[in-house]
Amino acid sequence: MILINPIIRLVNRNLTISINPGFIIWQILFPLIYIFVAGFAYTALIDSVPFGGKNLDYPAFLASGMIGFNIMNSTLISGIIIWNDRRHGMFEQIMSGPFTRTHYILSNIVTIGIIGLFSAALITAVGYPVFFDSVEFNIVTIPLIIFGSVVGAILFGSIASIISVKLRSSEGFNVIINTVFLFCAFASTAFYPVQGAPQPLATIFYLNPLSYLVDIIRAGIFGQVTDFVIIEMLLLVALASILFVIATKLLTKLDF
Amino acid sequence: MLCIETKDLRKKYASTVAVDGVDLQIESGQVFGFLGPNGAGKSTVIKLLTTLISPSNGKISVLGIDSSKHPLEIRKKIGVVLQQPSYEPTLSAEKSLEKYGMMWNIDKKIRKKRTEELLSAFGLEEIRKKKMDDLSIGQRRRVQVAREFMHDMELLFLDEPTVGLDPAARRKLLDFLREQVKNSGLTIFYTTHVLSEAEYLCDNIAIINNGKIMAVDSPSELKNRFGHEKTIKIHISKVSEELKSKLSIIPECQIKLEPEPTVIINSTKSEIVLMNILKILNDTNTKINDLSAIPTNLEEIFLKVVGDSN
Questions:
Q1: Residue-wise pLDDT tens digits, B39-77
Q2: Interchain pair A97, B84: CB under 8 A
Q3: B40 and B170 share one domain
Q4: pLDDT tens digits for A228-247?
Q5: Roughly what angle, to the nearest 10 degrees, separates helices A209-222 and A101-131?
Q6: Residue B198: CA atoms inside 13 Å, Cβ hemisphere, count?
Q7: Are B11 and B96 found together in one domain?
Q8: CATH number of domain containing B241
């Protein structure tokens, strides 16, 4: 309780300062446009996509990919919280209050996890009409989706945290974070299937952690947990752990 | 009871010594002024005392707690308003106070009551719904200081809290702080560059320069110790060559012609010098327009102590 109470209070504060009507509208509107405009427009080009033992409609494939994409996008908040706290003096203020750096770091992780899950739930609800024909939820797959959402959120939250600790200027922070996240988004299996992509691009797709996250969530939604997905889960956990340790060390070393 | 005690406190950054052997003993229930020129080490001492940074050497005890062993326990009992602004840009002034109280685990009902009291005490009612990002520097500073009173504390660190405040807001804040010390027994560690503020508010004052404490005492004692030299100004009608020649033999006085002819005496024995000068003025038939004695203030003491140490 001694450790948890300050973390809950910081999470409460993080959510209050981060979540606003604009953020929520964007979190819904952007995937809606993608799923229902791009999804159906590209159906003429991509008829169906093989996934595990199934053939998915492109809108169903895209909608499930958007869950991973949205989780990644929403974890930007972690970087923005740290960056804003440093820029507006709140990091020092919090550290001079009844909190430790451990509280601060853990509260950020919990915040990212909550936002990640919220985001996944939102896109699942929004995208459900387009993939409900192929959905195969069961006792194993739902925890898999939750697992993927939380670990993926920690991974991308850690990347955003590392960038926010390293960069002071708003221009630098925005340019780097947008470049990294844009590259991750478009060089992944979130929007298009890897089949048919040129070999170098296909390799990049599978060096990209967003592909692992998206594949795990798809496997959860469509009930296609293959050996490859299990390897992706292990890789996601390993990468998330490494990046989390780096982000924590950098935050711990932040000087006043 | 001692509220703050430091022994041989030192902080070194690479080749720079920011704090160089500071010994402080501060009693509870007072406003302790901590004065010094820019870069003297004031903010570093505050960061050390508030456990934000660790000392390179020396011991710190705050509220009887060893800072190296239980820093979090200290932080739970203190309030800190740092020199730089700190605010949540997306929150309104009112929400800032309320959320800060929540962060300090203050009960919701008490939070609401305190928010209203502080909005009123700091004159923030009109801007309560305005976002922090849209406020002026002075308004943000008022919210920042008010916010710290959302939680209970035994010791409050205020690092230049009046920066950006207009004279009325400044006086209101100083009176509020005095009242807090009087009513709740709060101890305040206060830094400022406005020495009239320190003179108005502080029970005791330390002057720091180059990381070392140069003097510690009450304002009146500091004046007694360092304020022997007094200044007397005699405004005269004209300055003749004869007068110039006769005054040139008195080293403690100088003549200024602009904006009006004035003889200025700076001396530890200003009364005796004054008698001699009055005689010379009489001998040279120089008419006196006005005569004023300037009382020693803290600013002169500060300049003398810092000047001597440099």
A1: 999 999 999 999 999 999 999 999 999 999 999 999 999
A2: no
A3: yes
A4: 999 999 999 999 999 999 99
A5: 50
A6: 28
A7: yes
A8: 3.30.70.1150
A201: left (phi over 0), alpha (psi -120 to 50) or beta: alpha
For chain A, what is the largest distance between any 2 Cα atoms, rounded to a whole number of angstroms? Answer: 59
Alpha carbons B37 and B303: distance in angstroms, whole number: 9
pLDDT of residue B265: 84
Mean pLDDT of chain A: 88
Q: How far is CA B275 from CA B232, B269, B271, in A?
A: 12, 10, 6
Inter-chain CB proximity A9 and B75 less than 8 Å: no
Same domain, B9 and B82: yes
Q: Are residues B21 and B118 in the same domain?
A: yes
CA–CA dist A232, A228 (Å, integer): 6
User: In B, which residues are within 8 Å of A17 by CB distance?
Assistant: 88, 90-91, 99
Name the residue among B78, B85, B105 with its Cβ closest to that of A5. Answer: B105
Smallest Cβ–Cβ distance between A97 and the set B47, B88, B104 belongs to: B104
Range of the domain at B261: 227-309
Q: Is-contact A126 A45, C-beta < 8 A?
A: no
Taking an 8 Å cut-off on Cβ atoms, the answer to whether A98 and B80 are in contact is no
Q: What is the CA radius of gyration of chain B?
A: 24
Contact between A17 and B88 using a beta-carbon 8 Å cutoff: yes
pTM check: above 0.90: no
Domain residue extents for chain A: 4-253
Q: pLDDT digit string (tens) for B171-207?
A: 999 999 999 999 999 999 999 999 999 999 999 999 9
Rounded Cα distance between B68 and B108, Å, is: 33
CATH code of the domain containing B102: 3.40.50.300
B178 vs chain A: nearest CA distance in angstroms?
A: 23
Q: Which residue among A96, A99, A255 sits closest to B80, beta carbon to beta carbon? A: A96
pLDDT by 10s per residue, chain B, length 310? 899 999 999 999 988 999 999 999 999 999 999 999 999 999 999 999 999 999 999 999 999 999 999 999 999 999 999 999 999 999 999 999 999 999 999 999 999 999 999 999 999 999 999 999 999 999 999 999 999 999 999 999 999 999 999 999 999 999 999 999 999 999 999 999 999 999 999 999 999 999 999 999 999 888 888 777 778 888 888 888 888 888 888 877 778 877 788 888 877 777 788 888 888 888 888 889 888 887 777 888 888 888 877 7
A17 touches chain B (CB under 8 A): yes
> Which residues of B are less than 8 Å from A88 in CB distance?
85-89
Whether B272 and B143 map to the same domain: the answer is: no
Subunit contact B86:A20, Cβ cutoff 8 A: no
- Judge: B95–A5 Cβ closer than 8 Å, yes or no: no
User: Residue A12 is nearest to which of B51, B86, B102, comparing CB atoms?
Assistant: B102
Name the nearest CA neighbour of B236 among B272, B265, B213: B265
Q: CB of A239 within 8 A of CB of A209? A: yes
